[in-house]
Design goal:
The protein is of the alpha+beta class and 187 residues long. Helix content is 50%, strand content 24%. The chain is built from eight helices and eight strands; from the N terminus they run ααββββββαββααααα. Strand 4 and strand 5 form a beta hairpin. The radius of gyration is 17 Å and the shape is globular.
Length: 187
């Protein structure tokens, strides 16, 4: 819980009343490796915070998995489209490792936004951060070479090398595993 409170306090100062309210609303959820948190076509009703473990968000294209994102300790996870719109998701969320999550349901989060200005600020800042990351990801996939994407990955997310398979990494980078192997051999 302390990791979550620290992350939230980076965004806005939470008084004791807000912390107590939040603690009462949060649920702890455990997932084993390969468990699904969300399957494509379902509507996600929760926002998650990763206390420990690692998640991936992915969808299928031509019967292949395409990984959109990874989420590890100290990060928030959901299918943003599905959560915000409360419509069915186009993506899956799966645990890559044994994972412990804190969750809050959609309506409880909306009530926190309405009741506590600090929480409304947190929601806005997290949304802004998500948007910037999404735009960086789109720019990377559209305008960078495979080698540039891998180099940027090493600069910002190298810790994942020890935690994800090369197949997952290749999918995330939008390249084949063979191309990834060639790039890594030249490093």
């Amino acid at each position: 819980m302390q990791l979550l409170l620290n992350r939230l306090n980076e965004l806005a100062t939470l008084n004791e009343e807000v912390k107590i309210k939040l603690e009462n609303l949060l649920k702890v959820e455990q997932f084993e490796k390969d468990d699904f948190i969300l399957k494509e076509g379902s509507t996600i009703r929760k926002l998650y915070f990763v206390e420990s473990g690692l998640l991936r968000g992915f969808h299928y294209k031509d019967e292949k998995e395409v990984i959109n994102w990874f989420c590890n300790e100290g990060q928030f996870a959901t299918s943003m489209y599905s959560f915000v719109s409360q419509k069915p998701s186009y993506e899956n969320i799966q645990a890559i490792e044994k994972t412990t999550l804190f969750s809050i349901n959609y309506q409880d989060l909306q009530n926190l936004y309405e009741t506590y200005p600090a929480f409304d600020r947190i929601g806005r800042l997290l949304t802004e951060q998500y948007y910037v990351q999404l735009e960086e990801r789109i720019i990377s996939l559209q305008f960078q070479t495979a080698k540039e994407r891998y180099t940027n990955f090493l600069q910002s997310e190298e810790y994942l090398l020890q935690r994800v398979s090369l197949g997952f990494l290749a999918s995330y980078l939008g390249i084949t595993q063979e191309t990834l192997s060639r790039i890594r051999a030249k490093k």
